[in-house]
Amino acid sequence: MSGDGEGTLVANGSGAHPPPGSAPSARQAISNNGTNGAHKPSMNGSSHLDGAARSHLAPPTYLGHDREEVTRLLIQALSGMGYQNIAKSLCEDSGYELENPTVAAFRSAIMGGAWSEAENLLSSAVFAGGQDSDEHGLVLSPGSDRTTMRLWIRQQKFLELLEKRETTPALTVLRNEITPLHCDTARVHFLSALLMCHSPEDLKEKADWDGAGGNSRQTLLSELSKCISPSVMLPDNRLADLLQQVKQSQIDICLYHTSAASPSLYSDHHCDRANFPSEVAVTLTDLDGEIWQIQFSHSGNRLAACGSKSEVVVWHVPDFGVATVLRHDEAEVGNLSWSPDDSLLVTCSRDNCARIWETETWTLVKHIDRVDDPVTGCVWAPDGQTFTLSTLDKHRSLRTFNRKGDIVHTWERKHRLQDLCGSRDGRWLVGIDDHRKIHVYNGITRELEYEMELHAMPTSVSISSDSKHLLVNKNDGEAQYINLATRKLVHKFLGHTGGECLIRATFGGANESFAVSGSEDGNVWVWHKETGAAVERLAGHQPRCNSVAWNPADPCMLASCGDDGKVKIWSNKTRGQELRSMYRQWRQQNSYNGWQNQDEA
């Protein structure tokens, strides 16, 4: 049986996309690998009856799963992968169809821009579980808002008319069809402003919309499908989503997860403990004094450290040759932060200043003006165009600068902040003060969202890569894993010791599966992020381990630093041998003596 397609099906789009005009077009790229099928496989009467007869003779379940559900998922997945003939054959052989004719007509109307037909079908739709519920028609999920669905359809109609420069019909739609819905005044005002767009390109940019010829109709259909019962219209990419959930659940219970590659579906996932970074590969002694902070660049090819001396040392990775030493005029350097593209490095100093360094030539871009107290932290905006500094100056504790070091905003809140972190999506900006409080800001609006008071002094904060969770390290030897949206404690990480000094904790590892922290007793503690279980306790530094960092590009590379003036690079046995070999080669070529291996340390 040939798997060649008879035509590419029109995809629903990703279920995560909002209605047209409300999400950036960059997020509206829709793959065909999960379509319900715009061209529903046709079935002639005899083959359909034969298939239906066979389906009634077959057991109602497949290994405990509903046979019809499994079959429809397979039809959708096969169609999405381009195997149209096989999907059609499966429909005929099983007697199950992917969608009933009414749902298929609704899909065709949306994708074809037949807005009146789409609204007529929507008007005749019934709610699942109701007295008039009919699985052969368009069935809405309980709680769905038919008026909101109409708004989405009419908004698409309005935008497409504007794109074609048909301003008068577009204005008619806005006045006579959208405004009478009375469901989103702000949206109506926004759409009204779009009438002033001078070109289709201007319209698309301002509306965050990619046009009728792009993915906007698919995006609309995807949003509408969320309001339709999955019994008649499968969620987009449903089988792929289920498989991803299986993979993620196996990652979540893998205690020593070190493989960044996606797990295979052929077998259960498991990572060998021998691959975990639990032994010292290289010890670096290039920075004098106590080392307080260490951080890999986003690409993972550089490592920077700072501390009680007036220097910041940057190493190349993975040979750990010294790239540069940045001087800070005899001032202690407490923190540093790489820009998202690694082109700039901001260093935060105890001399009440911050400095911006260009990382190609390591020249000083700007010496940022003094405040009345030390600069404690730096968070870059996701686009890398601005960054926000935190300080212990309660009158200017938060200030935002552009890449040149020019101030663009002074935040109004007045508190002394000891540490600062931000989420990758720009949604959250979180700081900790010297009075046991966590201050959670909206990073986009710069408004305070809420505050949380702790029972012990926090020493550092970090946000997970998915922008959902906050890790708070405290001086009582407890780290808390908090859901930022619900403000609820998920679980605690225990075992390390705290004290009066600032000790940092962060997330890292393959798929960011771990939380890791320094400790007052010198150990490096690693916990499984999802279970809270302690995975490793590594004897790191004496007398104190102050900071840890996981290489974002290498799940088997962990760095730590402490009051002993050492930076330790942790890896597994095999990878450690490679790292030592590369550093020996660099040391020989540069006649360098500042290196020790684990046996020499």
TrEMBL record:
Membrane-spanning segments: none
Annotated InterPro entries: WD40/YVTN_repeat-like_dom_sf (IPR015943), WD40_repeat_CS (IPR019775), WD40_repeat_dom_sf (IPR036322), WD40_rpt (IPR001680), WD_repeat-ST_regulator (IPR051350)
Record flagged with keyword Repeat: yes
WD repeat boundaries on the chain: 326-367, 538-571
Keywords noted in UniProt: Repeat, WD repeat
Region listing for Disordered, in residue ranges: 1-63
Keyword presence, Protein biosynthesis: no
SMART domains: WD40
GO biological process, one term: proteasome-mediated ubiquitin-dependent protein catabolic process
Example of a GO cellular component annotation carried by this entry: GID complex
Protein name listed in UniProt: Related to WD40 repeat-containing protein
Source organism: Cephalotrichum gorgonifer
